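Lab notebook, bench 4. The sequencing result for the construct came back, and we need a structural model before the next group meeting so we can plan mutations. Quick request posted to the team channel:

Model the 3D structure of this chain.
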Amino acid sequence: SGFEREVVKGAKVYGYRQKPREATLDCKFPAGGEGSPAADEINTWTAVTIEFVADTGEVHMMTKAWSSEPASLDGGGEISAKFASATSTRVQ
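Done. Here's the predicted structure in C-alpha coordinate form:
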Protein backbone atom coordinates (compact mmCIF):
# COMPACT_ATOMS: atom_id res chain seq x y z
CA SER A 1 0.00 0.00 0.00
CA GLY A 2 1.09 3.55 -0.45
CA PHE A 3 0.38 6.44 -2.76
CA GLU A 4 0.46 7.06 -6.49
CA ARG A 5 1.77 10.57 -7.13
CA GLU A 6 1.04 12.64 -10.21
CA VAL A 7 2.93 15.83 -11.06
CA VAL A 8 0.78 18.99 -11.11
CA LYS A 9 2.15 21.58 -13.50
CA GLY A 10 1.09 24.51 -15.61
CA ALA A 11 3.36 27.48 -16.26
CA LYS A 12 5.60 25.87 -13.62
CA VAL A 13 5.70 22.74 -11.50
CA TYR A 14 3.29 23.24 -8.58
CA GLY A 15 3.87 19.97 -6.79
CA TYR A 16 1.96 16.71 -6.86
CA ARG A 17 -1.45 15.17 -6.29
CA GLN A 18 -1.61 11.77 -4.63
CA LYS A 19 -4.11 8.93 -4.63
CA PRO A 20 -3.99 6.00 -2.20
CA ARG A 21 -2.98 2.62 -3.64
CA GLU A 22 -3.92 -0.82 -2.39
CA ALA A 23 -1.41 -3.45 -1.33
CA THR A 24 -1.14 -6.32 -3.83
CA LEU A 25 0.27 -9.83 -3.82
CA ASP A 26 0.88 -12.20 -6.74
CA CYS A 27 1.26 -15.79 -5.56
CA LYS A 28 1.13 -19.43 -6.61
CA PHE A 29 -0.52 -22.43 -4.97
CA PRO A 30 0.21 -26.08 -5.77
CA ALA A 31 -2.75 -27.53 -7.66
CA GLY A 32 -4.35 -30.74 -6.44
CA GLY A 33 -3.33 -32.71 -3.43
CA GLU A 34 -4.69 -32.72 0.07
CA GLY A 35 -5.36 -29.26 1.47
CA SER A 36 -4.75 -27.44 -1.81
CA PRO A 37 -7.48 -24.99 -2.80
CA ALA A 38 -9.07 -25.10 -6.25
CA ALA A 39 -8.95 -22.05 -8.54
CA ASP A 40 -12.73 -21.57 -8.38
CA GLU A 41 -12.55 -21.64 -4.57
CA ILE A 42 -9.78 -19.01 -4.50
CA ASN A 43 -11.92 -16.75 -6.70
CA THR A 44 -14.56 -16.56 -3.94
CA TRP A 45 -12.14 -15.47 -1.21
CA THR A 46 -12.91 -12.10 0.35
CA ALA A 47 -11.88 -10.74 3.77
CA VAL A 48 -9.07 -13.29 4.20
CA THR A 49 -5.84 -12.83 6.15
CA ILE A 50 -2.65 -13.57 4.23
CA GLU A 51 0.76 -13.85 5.84
CA PHE A 52 3.74 -14.22 3.56
CA VAL A 53 7.53 -14.21 3.70
CA ALA A 54 9.25 -11.97 1.15
CA ASP A 55 12.48 -13.00 -0.61
CA THR A 56 14.30 -10.69 1.82
CA GLY A 57 13.02 -12.70 4.81
CA GLU A 58 10.60 -10.00 5.96
CA VAL A 59 7.17 -11.26 7.05
CA HIS A 60 4.14 -9.25 5.96
CA MET A 61 0.43 -9.59 6.69
CA MET A 62 -2.53 -8.47 4.61
CA THR A 63 -5.84 -8.44 6.49
CA LYS A 64 -9.30 -8.30 4.91
CA ALA A 65 -7.69 -9.18 1.57
CA TRP A 66 -9.68 -10.25 -1.48
CA SER A 67 -9.00 -12.15 -4.67
CA SER A 68 -8.54 -9.29 -7.16
CA GLU A 69 -8.32 -11.26 -10.41
CA PRO A 70 -9.53 -14.69 -11.46
CA ALA A 71 -7.13 -17.43 -10.36
CA SER A 72 -5.83 -19.62 -13.17
CA LEU A 73 -4.27 -23.05 -13.46
CA ASP A 74 -1.06 -23.24 -15.50
CA GLY A 75 0.44 -26.24 -17.25
CA GLY A 76 3.03 -26.72 -14.51
CA GLY A 77 0.47 -27.74 -11.90
CA GLU A 78 0.31 -24.39 -10.12
CA ILE A 79 -2.55 -21.96 -9.54
CA SER A 80 -1.66 -18.29 -10.06
CA ALA A 81 -3.66 -15.84 -7.94
CA LYS A 82 -3.68 -12.12 -7.19
CA PHE A 83 -4.84 -10.54 -3.95
CA ALA A 84 -5.36 -6.96 -2.79
CA SER A 85 -6.07 -5.26 0.53
CA ALA A 86 -6.16 -1.75 1.93
CA THR A 87 -2.83 -2.26 3.72
CA SER A 88 0.07 -4.65 4.15
CA THR A 89 1.83 -4.60 7.51
CA ARG A 90 5.35 -5.79 8.20
CA VAL A 91 5.11 -8.11 11.20
CA GLN A 92 8.72 -9.31 11.37
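The radius of gyration is 17 Å.
Will bring this to the meeting.
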